[in-house]
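Cross-check.
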Amino acid sequence: MRRWVSTVVALGLVVLAATPAQAADCRIGTAVDYAAPLAQLPTLPQLPEEKGNDLPFGPPGLVLDHYRVDDAYLPGIESAGYRLRSTAKRARRVNWVVTMKILNVDSEGKSGALLNLDRERIGRIAPREKFGFRVYLTSAPGLYRTQIVFRNRRGKLLGRFGEYFRILAGQYQAALVIDDPILSPGEVLDPRLDNGAARLQFGLGAPIERLEADQWVPAPFGNGPVPELALFLEPGASARCWPTTIPTDASPGHYRVGLSLTYQTRTGRSPLGGSASPTVEFEIVP
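Predicted model, tokenized:
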């Protein structure tokens, strides 16, 4: 069987070494929208989207890109910024002073402390030359804004662009839930994993147990072998990867389904995390 590697960043799930059918079994949603506060802030000048992101000032063929694509980060050593590059076939002279900043903002978008700054004078840009404007982020939870400003050598403002992002207070708050915990034979058990502010790694194994004489014992269904996969769920995302049809001969009683996962609440050179085994209980009735 052919193997593949798929990355679904926008939905919050990364599937490593999975077959197409297995990857399609996971339905991804949103448990917590960590980007929602950003949408309430005042609008910032965005990067140009026409003509291949060519800057609206200066000579043609100069493109400005993001280094960063996320709205929310876990604490850790990360960086954000922009890249200026030339797609022109000949050198361009611009004589610019470019300043890149990261500032703390409040819930209304008002600027606070300046956290980091990068400034560079650019006289001439050769074909395919690149200039990076990147600064490291703080680990303190909060709302932040990047800002890149272009001025000519006399100090006249040529253009300004920016974007908001959020740094989370990394915490393990994952929960396994069932929409309806009372099921009958023939119905589908469809547990959902809701992630908080951590990065989760787990697999497709979700063993089911039955309560007998105050002890949990393996149920006669839902415990078959599963492929060896590494699934990653990003902060705020939810996943449904373990649908199981209750057999028609399933005995009524009290059951539970559980997962084994690891989590990371801090990234970078000093990551923090641990392991957990969330469960959720349900009833099977005639």
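Residues 36-167 form a domain with the Immunoglobulin-like fold (CATH 2.60.40.2550). The two ends are 40 Å apart (CA to CA). Passed to J.P. for a second look.
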